[in-house]
Amino acid sequence: MQFIVGYTLTAAVLVTHSRIAAAASALFALSTISAYLLAVWGGLFGFREIRTRAGIAAGLIEVAAFGVLIMAAIAADPAPEADGSVSGTARMLARVQAAVSMVIGGVGVVSVLALAFLGIGLANAGGPAVAAVGNTGKVTLRTADVGGVTVLTNAQGLTLYWFAPDTPTTSRCTGSCADYWPPVYGTPEAGPGVTGRLGTIRRPDGSRQATYEGHPLYTYIGDGGPGQATGNKLDLNGGYWYETRVSG
Q1: How many CB atoms lie within 10 A of CB 30?
Q2: Cβ proximity of 5 and 28 under 8 Å
Q3: How many CA atoms lie less than 13 Å away from 196 in the CB half-sphere?
Q4: pTM value surpassing 0.70
Q5: Distance between CA 199 and CA 123 in Å, rounded?
Q6: Residue of 9, 14, 2 lying closest to 58 (CA atoms)
Q7: pLDDT, tens digit, for every residue of 33-60?
Q8: pLDDT tens digit string along 57-109?
Q9: SS3 letters for the chain?
Q10: Which strand ranges, in their side-by-side order, compose the sheet holding 208-212?
Q11: Which residues, other chains included, contact 30 with Cβ-Cβ below 8 Å and sequence gap of 6+?
Q12: Are 56 and 123 in contact (CB under 8 A)?
């Protein structure tokens, strides 16, 4: 829907040169970046976004689009008179407006380039430093009741999940997928109430990931704390995700 609306507004601006179309497009850009920020800061419609390079780049482009379109809405030239008669004053105003439009276009290009370079800098800077993942550390698994079901959790009480495309020896969740579904690193130890087969696998980066009954384990960034299982039965990143239920 966003894709269709965006291209429809683009066509309207290019064809009509209308202030209304430009203003509507500016508001559309503003609403898009606002929705992204809400998803990053606290979640939107049950989904929580994380900061990625692609997200930062898209956000910067939306900011640039908003600025350019607002200026275009202000400077948009109304349609000429139907009879073709144009006074000298009107022609002069048209030339001034054309010059202003060129300036706006130049400012827009420079703004986009500046924001792009800024985005690259922010993306390279990244967030807080992440501690190196240990391959021999211990991780204690626990149990909790979530919605009347006994599920496996980490030591902090966060629900653990398994990914349908995984195999007992291989994790299919790598790259950006692992940003949304952080793997449980280390060698698992059974806490109170935990029964079933524990183990580990080697991830593509060489780190060790805990497994339960042959399933590599993950948390979900959408869970805000213990007692939640918002990632259960989600079809994301190439397959279904399920809460890890305790055997027996």
Answers
A1: 16
A2: yes
A3: 23
A4: no
A5: 35
A6: 2
A7: 788 788 777 777 766 676 666 677 777 7
A8: 777 788 888 888 887 777 765 555 445 555 667 677 777 766 666 666 665 66
A9: CHHHHHHHHHHHHHHHCCHHHHHHHHHHHHHHHHHHHHHHHCCECCECCCCCHHHHHHHHHHHHHHHHHHHHHHHCCCCCCCCCCCCHHHHHHHHHHHHHHHHHHHHHHHHHHHHHHHHHHHHHHCCCCCCCCCCCCEEEEEEEEECCEEEEECCCCCECEEECCCECCECCCCCCHHHHCCECECEEEECCCCCCCEEEEECCCCCEEEEECCEECECCCCCCCCCCCCCCCEEECCEEEEECECCC
A10: 198-202, 208-212, 215-216
A11: 62, 66
A12: yes
Tokens describing residue 230? 């918002």
Q: What are the structure tokens assigned to 27, written together?
A: 């508001």
Please enumerate in sequence order all residues whose Cβ is within 8 A of that of 145, keeping only pairs 6 or more positions apart, or say none.
151
Sheet with strand 239-243: strands edge to edge: 161-163, 239-243, 234-236
Can you read off the two tokens belonging to residue 170?
């291989």
